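Next comes a single protein record:
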Amino acid sequence: MDPLELRPAWWQAVHLLLVGALATPAAAQLPAARTAIDERAPVQTRDTVVVRAGPAQVWAVLTNIGGWPAHYDFVRAAQPPAALRAGERFRWRTTKLNLTSTLLLVDPPRQLGWRGRKYGVTVYHFWHLVPQGDVTLVITEESQRGLLVSLLKKGFRSRLQAGSRLWLQQLKAAAEADPHTP
């Protein structure tokens, strides 16, 4: 018999949450390689901005992960992946969390996506760069699923929406600042 089964139910739930194994059956069945957010997640956001720069310039800023702290107020440090390709991991620190994310979608200069997990919360974040003449429409979307998200949905949603808008505005400013360097 598994020693965990001998513990009270509340202890089992706390243990599973702390090791990040508490997932809904739907989340457990999601494929490893995604190209879109989790449409059934309790918290989702989508936002857009038009950038006066081509997709290659926006891509250069967005994928310069080591340079994120210079462009995005909420990123304190970032260690880029060894290579910019699906399956590679990168580490970054926000104002509140140390994160490790795995690249899921790398389609230069059109799409970038990653997955992250922390405290039983699974996050999918995708960027889509759509050329429109001399400008680029940038679409960002993120989903969050997990027990904490379900319990604190309103707070998670408002912080995610504010963070998404800020990231888009700062990406726009960085990409438009100098069309020759990221």
